Amino acid sequence: MSDHGPTALVGDSLIQGGDWQAWLPDEIIYNFGVGGDTTDDVIARLWDVINARPTLVALLIGTNDLAWRRSVEHVVRNIETILVTLRRELPEAHILVQSVLPRGHEFADQIRDINRHLWQFAPTVHAQWLDLWPALALDDGELNPRFSDDRLHLNVDGYKAWLDELIPGLERARELPPSSRAIQLPDLGGTY
Hints:
With about 190 residues, this protein is an alpha/beta fold.
């Protein structure tokens, strides 16, 4: 059993469909994956995650927003909101932000843009970044067909490729200090 507290996996059907407890037997896993969820949906149910008090949160969300024709800015803003809220409400938790996975190549430019923004933003909330793109995408941005039967959901080989990246990502996330506390300035009685 884990000696470092529970891990919350948060996201959509890609998270929901994983047999995480079997694949990560030394972890206490909370699966907060819901099929079809968008970033808006995760925001709406974020208190479920916060109230579970995980010591590590691994987030993977955003691909369903693109199917609903949400803009890159919408997805990035929502994921930033999720991360800021998690950091504020779970200041001691470790956070691992996973890149939006590749899917059909027609989404590649949008996903690359989202991932570039998230890669830059993650350090501002003391989150670790895990780029899954190199392990799962072809050169044109298509999800490698070895890993999916429908250009979106992962098959067994796809989950294995993800796990090969996720396990060391979780280990790296735990090695970092979770956050630095905000500096509290003394009350100077309004003499600024």
